[in-house]
Every structure is written in C-alpha cells, then in structure tokens.
Amino acid sequence: MDVIFYYLRKKLKYDPNVAVSATTTDYHFCFKVVELYDKFVKSGNKIDVVPKSNIVTEYMSGYYMYANKDWLRVDYVLIYMHIKDEKHWILIIFDIRARCLNVYNSLGSRHELDRKTAGYVKPFAVVLPICLSFIDYYSRRMDIDTSQGFFKGKKEEDMLDVFVVTKLPQQVDNDCGLFVAKYADFFIHGCIEKLPNPLDVGFFRRKLAVELYVHAKKKLLNDYDSESEFPGRIPKA
C-alpha cells in the first residue's frame, strides 16, 4: 500500500493531468497518529500531553515523507488505514475545506462495520485538528471561510466530523487493498462518481501492475531521479 500511495502522491505532485489539489500519507503516518491518540486518551483527553513538535506536524508541514506536500497547498489528504480486527483496508479522505473525514469502505455496512470503522477512524478525527492547531493551519488558509459549515461553533482543535460514503463498489473477495487504491485513484482524477460498479477486479489489478511497471521502467531507461523526493526533517530551532 505504501508503494501504491507513493505512486499516487507523485502523480498528484507532478502530473499536470491531475487537477485535484491533494496529497497522500503512508502507514507510518497512521501509526504516529494512533500513538498520539493513545497518549491523549490515557491522559484523560488533555491536549497539552500532545507534543507541539511531533512527527504528524512534520508530515503536515511537507516534511518527513518522500514526495510530500505542505498541507497548506492542498485541499484533501488521502489516508489509508488497516482495521486489524477485520484484516481490512479502508480509505479516509480528509476534506480540509469542509473540516470532515469521509470514509470509503469496500465492505459497506456489513458486520456493523460502520460502528467499528468509526472507532478506528476516531484517532484521526481527534489528532488531526489538534496538530493543525499547533501549526496555526486555518489562520494561514485565508482562502477558507471558517465561520460556516462544520467550522461553525467549534474551536480549531475540536474533533472532526466523520461520514461514511455510500453507494460505492463493494468487494466480494479479499480485494480490499485494490478497492482502496481505485477509490483513491478515481478521486484524485475528479471522477469518483464514475468508478465502475461492480468493479472489474482482474482488469484493475492488471492495470495497476502495468502502471507501476511502466513508471519504474521509465525511470530506469531515462536514468532520472525526481528532485527533492525526500524533504528531510523540520530544522530544529
């Protein structure tokens, strides 16, 4: 999944045909979010136990991850996460302008997964706004009206609203990873509503394999490396 979302992140950063303003994360980002959330919960929900300088804020500032973007330059962040109890992948899309998380789940509401999924998504709903407040994010986004919608009546560090997206193609076998990849791929191209339903798993699996192979082959044959792939860490004061 890290490889797939790295590939999508590069498309978002370099491909002029991708119009959606977004970036992706990696599995380490999810781990660090959950780590901060656990610390927050164990303290009795005290925000001051969350360090103002942490790995999550480095990600948000465009550091730490290959081909990363400063979140000040995007409107969406695509996050994939693993629901361990179900051995299942889901996609979370953070809509920065709307201040909410939209969850894409290829198992739909089976096995009461809406409730379970909400529990797994909660660390992101709690930690992301706290970390954004640490970097004064929304006060620096003059293009976002924070007086209406899901901003209204809330403090910057308050929990994000969470919604489960419906009417999506659903898996029939153990193909959740591919579904997450295609949800993300169609979303960044601005055509999530055109995602085939049902999804031709075999076709899209082969298509993704070819795309990754061609991308790697082009780099090898043209003998090039993308500049500034790794942005480093935030310089210490």
From TrEMBL:
GO biological process: proteolysis
Record's keyword annotation contains Ligase: no
Keyword annotations: Hydrolase, Protease
MF GO annotations: cysteine-type peptidase activity
InterPro entries: Papain-like_cys_pep_sf, Peptidase_C48_C
UniProt key word Cytoplasm: no
Domain Ubiquitin-like protease family profile: 1-187
Family under the similarity heading: Belongs to the peptidase C48 family.
Protein name, per record: Ubiquitin-like protease family profile domain-containing protein
